[in-house]
Specification:
- It is a single chain.
- The protein is α+β, with helices and mostly antiparallel strands.
- The protein has a domain of about 45 residues: Urease, subunit C, domain 1 (Roll).
- The chain contains two helices and four strands, in the order ααββββ.
- It has a four-stranded mixed sheet, with no helix packed on it.
- It is globular, with a radius of gyration of 16 Å.
């Protein structure tokens, strides 16, 4: 199907994959969050391709893919 969409010129494959991944949610558990004056362990929730929440512990959404760091 993707090949046929590409051949029809409706949407390039890279754009289709990028749009699909941006719609998913990811929960990064136990990662190290670092900025200019702080470094600590935290969970990071990514929704629609953007950081939605950073906290010491985040309860997983049912749709979020959990990635243990």
């Amino acid at each position: 199907m993707i090949r046929s969409l590409y051949k029809l010129g409706r949407e390039p494959l890279a754009s289709l994959l990028q749009r699909h991944l941006a719609l998913k949610s990811y929960l990064l558990r136990g990662g190290r969050v670092v900025n200019s004056d702080l470094s600590e362990r935290a969970d990071v929730l990514i929704k629609d391709g953007r950081i939605d929440q950073v906290a010491p512990t985040i309860n997983a959404e049912t749709t979020a893919e959990v990635i243990n760091c």
